[in-house]
Amino acid sequence: QVQLVESGGGLVQAGGSLRLSCAASGRTVGYNRMGWFRQAPGKEREFVASIRWSGGPTYYADSVKGRFTISRDNAKYTVYLQMNSLKAEDTAIYYCAAQISSGYEYWGQGTQVTVSS
C-alpha cells in the first residue's frame, strides 16, 4: 500500500518562497508519475505540476509556470515542489499524488499553504 506524506506548507508573505516535500512509502517500484494538485477554499481541486519517476518532461499549470519547479529524488522516493514568487491566489491545500498504472491512484493528506498579501 502506498503512503504519501506531504510537508513544508506554512504561512508566507506574497513574493516569498516555500518548498513542499512528498515522501512516498510502502512501495519501492512501479511509480509512473507523481503530481502536485491544490484546492483553494470554495474551488475544485486543480492540477499544479507533474513529473515522471524515470525522467523526461515536466508539466505545469499555466498559473504557476516560471514560478514553481517540480523535482524528484528517486533514492529517497521524494518529490518536491519549489514555489517562488508566491501570490495570494496560491493559497490552498496542496496534495501530492502518485500514478501507478492509470490516473492518480494514491493521494496524500495535503499540506496548507497560505500566502498573505
Global geometry: globular
Q: What is the N-to-C order of secondary-structure elements (H for helix, E for strand)?
A: EEEEEEEEEEE
What's the main sheet like? 7 strands, mixed
Please state the oligomeric state of the protein chains shown: single chain
Structural class: mainly beta
- Structure summary, number of beta strands: 11
Distance between the termini: 40 Å
Q: Determine Rg (CA atoms, Å).
A: 13 Å
Low-confidence stretches: none
Overall pLDDT: 94
Number of helices: 0
- Percent of residues in beta strands: over 45%
| Helical amount | under 10%
Keywords summarizing the entry:
four-stranded antiparallel beta sheet; 117 residues; mainly beta; 11 strands; seven-stranded mixed beta sheet; single chain
Report on the structure:
This protein is mainly beta and 117 residues long. Helix content is 0%, strand content 52%. The protein contains no helices and 11 strands. Strands 2, 4, 5, 6, 9, 10 and 11 form a 7-stranded mixed β-sheet that branches. It has a 4-stranded antiparallel β-sheet with strand order 1-3-8-7, with no helix packed on it. It is globular. The model has no long low-confidence stretch (mean pLDDT 94).
